[in-house]
Amino acid sequence: MKLIRIALLFSLLLPLALSGQSTPGAGAEDLAVLPPLVDGVAPTALVEEQLKKLAFAALARRETAYEQIKTSADVAAWQQRQRATLLAALGGLPERTPLNAQVTGQRDFGAYRMEKILFESQPGFLVSGLLYLPAGAGPHPAVLMPCGHTPIAKAGAVYQKASISLVRAGLAVFCFDPIGQGERRQFRKPDGTPEFTSPTSEHQLMGIAATPLGFSLARAMIWDSVRALDYLQSRPDIRGDRLGCTGVSGGGTMTSYLMALDERVVAAAPACYLTGYRRLLETIGPQDFEQNLFGQLAAGLDHADYVLLRAPRPVLIMAATQDYFDIQGAWNLFRQGKRCYGRLGFPERVELVEADTKHDLAIEMREASARWFRRWLAGRDDAWQEPAFDILPESEVLCTPEGDVLRQPGARSFFELNAAAAAPLTAERQRFWQTSPRPAALAKVRELARIRPLPELPAFTTNAGDVLQRGPVRIEKLTLRNPEGTVLPALLFRPAQAGGSLRLFLHGDGKRAEAGPGGSLEALARAGETVLAVDLRGLGEMQRGKRASGFEALAEPNWKPATLAYLLGHSFVGMRTEDILGCARFASEKWNQGRPVHLTGIGEAGIPALHAAALEPQHFASTRLERTLRTWTEVARSPHTRNQQVNAVHGALRFYDLPDLAAATPAGKLVLHEPVDAAGQVQVK
C-alpha cells in the first residue's frame, strides 16, 4: 500500500511540476488564518506576549520574596541563595590555570605610563589589555575596566578617556578587550579584517554555541575579569587588597556580574546597564546574549540582585536619563539596594548618579566614578575634577603586532575551547544511554527540554474559519487554542472521501510553504490522506518577520522571544514539542478515531517533531524529518551557525544529542531525509 500511495502522490505532483503553472484562481486565494489582531495582539507578537506574562509573574514572585527581607540575617540568606542561582545559570566557572602573562610594550606619558598586556584566562585563550599606572613606584589601588560593545574596545575614545581620567586621579587602571572585540575578534575574513561590523553578532554566535553545553557566554567573559583581577594581584606595584571595577553598557554588565561574584572588588561603579527586567521587557526587551542567563527569571534573579549580592561593599550605580536602559528601572533598583544596605547598617555605601545624557560614559560619570574610587580605594574623599588630555590612535594601543590575538603562537579561539569541552561528552552520553533504563533516559530529556507528559498538557479547542474548495480537496481554516494562551493557526486539507490516514504536517517556513495550489499538501489530500498543517509557535503567521540587518542579522526572526524563553528556563524546542503533542492528540481524537497520526517535520520544525516522536511514540504511526539539524555537537564547535537559537536546548549535550533521540524512536518509524549541518546546509555523503 505504501508503494501505491507514493506512486499516486508522484502522479499527482508531476503534471503540475512540468507545467510550471498554478491552478486557476491561485492568485486570489488567501491562506491566512489569523485576523490582524488576536485578543488585541498582532499574530507576530503572540508568543512574546505569552512569555512576557510568564516573566512578569516570575518577577512578581521575586518582588514578593524581596519584601520579606527584614533583617541582616534575611539579607545573608538571600545572598547565599542568589549566588548559587547565579553560578548555576552561568554553568559554573572554569578552573584556574597559569596566566602566562607578558608585557608586550610600554610607553611613558609623564603623569602616568601605559603597559600593553597579554595573559591567558584559560589555556591558550589570550586576553589583551592596557595597564595604566600613575607616576611613582606604588603600590597603587587599581580599577578593572571591561569594555562595552564597541568594535575596537580598549582603543575606543570612550575607554581611553575613562582610563586616563582614572589614572590621572591616582588609580591604576586595567582596561581589556572582551571576547569578540578589539584584538580578540573571533571572526575574521581571509585578509584579516573583521567579518562582522558589530561585536554583538560575534556574541550571538558564541552564545548559541555555548547553549547545548549548558554554559552561558557570560561564563567565559566573567572568567576573563576574574583572571584579570588575578593578574593585578600578581603585580608588586598594585595593591591587591584595593581593587575596583567599572564599565559602561556591556562593560557595565560585566562589572555587575563581577562585583556580585568576586569579593576582591572592594568598590564598583557599573554604568548604563542596570535597570531591572520589568522595565527592560516593558521597553527595549532582552539585549546582547551574555546579558541574559538561562532560567534566571524563573529562579528570581533580577538586575537588583547584582547589587544586593555585594552588600555592604560600596557600589555606585551610574545611569543616563536618555539611555535605552530605562532610568526609572535604575531608580527602582537603587531603592532595593538602599534598603538592603540599610538593613546591614551601611546605607551610604550604595549611591546613584544620574547624568542627563544618552548611552555613554559621560564626563559626569567619569568624574563621579573617579571620586568614588578615590574615596573607597585610596582614602581620599574630595571633589576631584578631570583634566584635559589627549588620546591615542588605535594603532598605538595594540598589544599584538597584527592586532589579532589568534595569530599568536598557541592561541585558541572560543570555538576551540567549546570543542574541547564537547569532546568528552560523547562518551559520557553513550554511557548514560547504555546504563540508564529507557524511561529514565527519556525523563531526563523531558527535564532538560521542559516537556510535560501529554496527559499534563492543556487540551486544544478549535475555532473554525473560512473554507476553501480546491477541486475535490476541501481546505478548512482552523485556530487552535489552549487555556495557557497558546494560539496556533492551522489548515485542514480534507480529501473528497475521508477514511484514509491522518498526517500532522509542520514546516519551518510555516504551513503555507506547501499549501499552495499544486503543493504537496494538496497532493496528499488528493491521494486520500487528511492533513492538518499547523504553524508552531513563532512560525508562519506568528513569525516576527524576515531576517533583519545590524544587530539581528545573525539571529533568527524569533531571537527576542527565544531569549525570553531562555530567561524563563524554557526553550522553543520544548514549547514547540508540547504544541506538537497537543495537536497530535487533538487531531487523533477529532478526525482519526483515536488512532496514531503520521508526523512530518521540515526544517526548523524537525527538532521538536523528533522530540515528540521519541517521547510519545504511541501517538505517531510514522515520523518523517526533512532538512533537520543532524547534531547539536556541530553547533557547539562550529563558528558559523545559522538559525540555531530556536533549535537549542540548554545543557542537552551533557545527556543527549539528536542522534540519541533518533535511536530512541521505535525501529522503522523514523525517516531522516537530507539532514543539515549547523549552517543549515544539506549533508553530503
- Counting DSSP E segments of at least 2 residues, the number of strands comes to 17
CATH architecture of the largest domain: 3-Layer(aba) Sandwich
How many helices? 20
Main β-sheet, spatial strand arrangement: 1-2-3-5-4-6-7-8-9
Distance between the termini: 30 Å
| Coarse structural class | alpha/beta
Rg measurement, Å: 28 Å
Q: Tell me the number of structural domains.
A: 2
Average pLDDT works out at 93
| Percentage of β-strand residues | 15-25%
CATH superfamily of the largest domain: Alpha/Beta hydrolase fold, catalytic domain
Major β-sheet, in short?
Answer: 9 strands, mixed
**Assigned CATH class of the largest domain:** Alpha Beta
Q: Please name the CATH topology of the largest domain.
A: Rossmann fold
Principal-axes geometry comes out as elongated
> How much helix is in the residues?
25-40%
Low-confidence stretches: 1-27
Which secondary structure elements does this structure contain, and how are they paired or packed?
Layout lengths: L1 H18 L26 H21 L5 H19 L11 E7 L3 E11 L2 E10 L5 E7 L10 H12 L3 E5 L22 H12 L6 H18 L3 E11 L1 H12 L3 E7 L5 H6 L21 H5 L6 E6 L6 H17 L6 E6 L7 H16 L35 H9 L2 H11 L2 H12 L11 E10 L2 E9 L5 E8 L7 E6 L12 H7 L3 E5 L24 H9 L4 H20 L5 E6 L3 H10 L4 E7 L5 H6 L20 H7 L5 E4 L12
Parallel strand pairs: 4-5, 4-6, 6-7, 7-8, 8-9, 13-14, 13-15, 15-16, 16-17
Antiparallel strand pairs: 1-2, 2-3, 3-5, 10-11, 11-12, 12-14
Helix pairs in contact: 1-15, 2-16, 4-11, 17-18, 18-20
